[in-house]
Amino acid sequence: MKFMSPKVHGIIDILVCVFLLASPIIFGFTGTLATFTYALGVAHLALTLLTDSSMGLVKIIPVSIHELIEFVVAVAVIILAYTLFDGNANGKLFYVIFGNCLLLTWLVTDYRGDSVHSMAKL
């Protein structure tokens, strides 16, 4: 069931960017884990600001592409948790949880905002 409006999703996108950019400091990530997390935060911020949505500033990426990228990234970070970060318990746990949160957000977002059940159509 897709009940999250595009506006609420956009707010969550910004919060995710802040979370990713703060996570290496908060959780004490170093090396590859910290670099990857910062890069993902910057990439997610760029995606958010370039998407043709309420939070987009430049609006050059269609929402359908944003939706696809979020799904691919969610699956990719879960795979990376078990490959690249398998030897780092903190990195593995972080990216398994983060990837699943991304998947859940992707699953419940009404990216087109046309669902009669969309909450908070601000």
What does this structure look like?
This protein has helices spanning 6-27, 31-50, 63-82, 89-108. With 122 residues, it is mostly helical. Helix 1 packs antiparallel against helix 2 (31-50). The longest helix has 22 residues, at 6-27. The radius of gyration is 15 Å and the shape is globular. 25% of the residues are buried.
Distance between the termini: 19 Å
- Helical content stands at 55-70%
Mean pLDDT: 90
**In DSSP terms, counting alpha (H) and pi (I) runs of 4 or more, how many helices?**
4
Number of strands: 0
H/E element sequence: HHHH
Rounded Rg: 15 Å
* Residue windows where pLDDT falls under 50 for at least 5 positions: 115-122
Beta-strand percent range: under 5%
Taking the sheet with the most strands, its summary is: none
Find the structural class using helix and strand composition: mainly alpha
Which word captures the global form?
globular
